[in-house]
Amino acid sequence: MFTKHVVSFFAATLISFGANAGVIFEDDFNTEAGAAGVSSLNYTGFSNWAVSNGTVDVVANGNGWGITCAGGSGKCVDLDGSSGNAGILTSSLLSLGAGTYTLSFDISGNQRGGGADSFTLALGGFLNESFSLVPTAPWQTITRTFTVVGNNANNIIFNHAGGDNIGIMLDNISLSKADVPEPATLAMFALGLIGLGFARRQARK
Known about the structure:
Layout: H1 2-19, E1 22-27, E2 49-52, E3 57-60, E4 75-78, E5 88-91, E6 94-96, E7 99-108, E8 117-123, E9 127-133, E10 140-148, E11 152-154, E12 156-160, E13 169-177, H2 183-204
Antiparallel strand pairs: 1-13, 2-5, 3-4, 4-13, 5-12, 6-11, 7-10, 7-13, 8-9, 8-12
Helix pairs in contact: 1-2
């Protein structure tokens, strides 16, 4: 009887862990600016982002400007739009409970020449970091991990410096909660519960 309760409790624990982990937010920009292959300068119609203090461009891969998005397909964002004033790209408000999180995103140089470009990444009080890339810098995946102690509500912010209408390219943003216990830890937990039940049954005899 006790073993059945242990199995049920263990299963519930696994479900609980699964419910509290996984992808919190992700965007590859592929559905922005209309049909596939369509670009849009000074774009403001994002589903998951707001643009302020300047502009950004949505760029389709192989659009004729010599720009290739991450993976060679889909769409990406030029963080320095076409108005002479680089924009601030701010995500929708994200609710973050206690746990460990991983933020990843792809960036490349502007792919069109000129000097190096830079932007600052911010996420509440957890992340604040500046990046600088020369125009020829290839696509690279940036990954950062941080820990939240209590419940928070924050935005992911990409704030590009400068305003020469060619900026760092951004693609494939993903924020996930990464506090799923290792299988070995769960197994030890289950064995401990079963051992406790066995000891209680022996004590009753």
